[in-house]
Amino acid sequence: MEMDRHNIMRPRLKPVVVRVVSMEEEDSDSEEALGGDSLFQYVLVIKLTKDENGKYSPRVTYQFPPKLSEHDESSKDEGLQSIPAFCFPDLQLWTEPVNTYKSETFSFILTDIGGRKRFGYCRRLLPARGRPCMPEVYCLISPLGCFSLYSKILDHVEQRIARSSSAVFAFLKAVIAKPFPSPGRKVVVSAFGGGVGMDTVVLKRPKDSAWLEHVDFEVLTSKLSYEMIMKIFAALVNERHILFVAERLSTLSTCILACVALLYPFEWQHVFIPVLPASLIDICCSPLPYIIGVMKSAIEPVINGDLPVEENVLIVDLDEGRFITDVLNDLSVMPNKHRSDLETSLKSACRSTGNAAGQSSRGQAIVAACMNFFIQTIGHYRKCYKAADGIDFDMPLFIKSGSKSSSEFLTAFSKTQMFDMFIQENSTASTNAGGMFELAMAENYGSSDDVLGGHTAFKLHKQAKAKIKGFIWKG
Fold it and tell me: How far is CA 30 from CA 25, 26, 75, in A?
């Protein structure tokens, strides 16, 4: 199938409120749907089967809800047709059955030509058959982003596989009937457990922002030093070509999603492929900026120069914690003081330790450190709209209004697509009222008028503003 390779993956990480909870949401024990969406659209089982030439290829062996006929809408869904390749991006390595395989959890994002995205949450594992066999993938397709919740669903799928396939699919059918819960809420799923009666599973959605719900920073901070994270952040801000390399799918997927979250409140506007199938390796030659994850088994043509990739590609080896190529010094463009503040905060956040709750706080602290950098450098942006309705943005004023030491950075950053999209989407003062970035700016500056340049349409709810206290990372 021919695909639009520059549009297959493009994240739209919705900026929403973190730790801003209304009084009605304080009781997290009740169930509440968000927009009436089911927890997932489809569940697919992808297995490797031999073709007429004796080679293995991935194909869908089970789909729920099932196709009703060849004219079913899912049969025409090109996104679904491309999923097997993303479940086995390292297909060339699978030449014979194996006895052991450590299961992996990973995700990918499919974006259609209209910009609508769907998340694929995958668990690749070895069936319990007592003989050598090929791994298979259970893949949940959903338009909703919440990695921790879907990872828990896949945990229960894997537990039931050892019992019986009927226990697996009874559970998944019970899950799909449930609505996607609001932040901090839960849904309770009861299903046949496979010989042990009915099982009850509680699936709770974190209260954190939706843009953090699909992110786990633990793998990133265990693989990379804070100095490397600093350099990657600078490359992201400058919209460079960035390749991440690792042996395991879960490492690639988790680390790349964590890196993209560092850009909040901005959104990556270019090619974004957390795990690239080896058959599509030539996408790395794209002249457009990209963030791409490549299995280590497929990276050789890029490193050896067999593919005509751009000169200034940043290649990050996640397994060895080093840069394979590091040709640009994007950190030098950052204002010295703000760069120093960012370094101090990241160093402190990355070196902190603790239990699961502490690990979550570390992730929040890392994102907050990067967000504070944006507050310090571009926090005056609302003063630069020429009219109260935000129709026109005065870019020269934006650059001039910053500190003298920020001039070079603001000039470069103002030319990025992520900033262009940001000022368009936030052109009216009420666009992101209550969004964490705006609330954090008000907390930082001490007055919403200082941040918003007198835009009276924007008013902070006192209760919401109070809820962000403690989130701003002080290092």
Answer: 9, 10, 37
**Which two three-digit tokens encode residue 196?**
């042990």
Could you give the CA distance from residue 472 to residue 475 in angstroms, rounded to a whole number? 9
- Computed on alpha carbons and rounded to an integer, the radius of gyration of the chain in Å comes to 23
Nearest alpha-carbon partner for 266 in 72, 92, 435:
435
Count CB neighbours of 456 within 10 A: 10
| Tokens representing residue 392 in the block | 């026109």
- For 147, what's the count of Cα atoms within 13 Å in the CB-facing half-sphere? 20
Token couple for 65 = 């809800």
SS3 111: strand
Beta carbons of 195 and 54 less than 8 angstroms apart: no
Contact 367, 262 (CB under 8 A): yes
Question: Chain centroid to CA 254: how far?
Answer: 8
Please write the tens of the pLDDT for every residue from 118-165.
889 999 999 877 789 999 999 999 988 778 788 889 999 998 888 888
Phi, psi of 258 (to 5 degrees): -65, -40
Write the DSSP assignment of 250-317 as a string of letters: HHHHHHHHHHHHTTTTS---SEEEEEE-GGGGGGGG-SS-EEEEEEGGG-HHHHTT-S---TT-EEEE
Q: Pairing mode, if any, of strands 179-181 and 136-142? A: unpaired
Residue 409, both tokens: 């950075």
Over residues 158-195, the pLDDT tens digits come to 988 888 888 888 899 899 988 888 877 888 998 876 66
Higher pLDDT, 306 or 7: 306
Question: How high is the pLDDT of residue 193?
Answer: 67
